[in-house]
Write a structure and sequence with these properties.
The chain contains 7 helices and no strands. It is mainly alpha-helical and about 140 residues long. Helix 2 runs antiparallel to helix 3.
Amino acid sequence: MTSLLLIPMVYTVYRAYCAQMATVRDREQHAIETEALHLRTIEGLAMAIEAKDQSTHRHLLRVRVYVAELGKLMQLDKPLVQALSIASFLHDIGKLAVPEHIINKPGRLSPEEFEKMKIHPVVGADIPGAGPVSLPGGADRALAP
């Protein structure tokens, strides 16, 4: 008789477990989709920056390949190599602060123009750290000092 009384309780626990697992799966899927959206946003921003600079010709792709290969040679963990590859897209983000006529100027830059060009790494370093940032693959942690 006691075992018959346990059936409703076991069933209730089972249903609660199933509901909790569905919630966990939904949250995991949401996290995956959000990370993919962040990555596409970063890639889009990086491509827009590269399009602004007519002299680089697939520079971002080359940098990403170099970073990934160096990470492998250094025997870094795969998640860290992936994070660094994602972060490599942002290495020229500071060019947003440099006037386009300087970026695309043929020939040598004047000393004043060169000074303006030199600010792009400083501005680029400040942009990801301007607020709470969570880059895909833990790239924000890979960039942390």
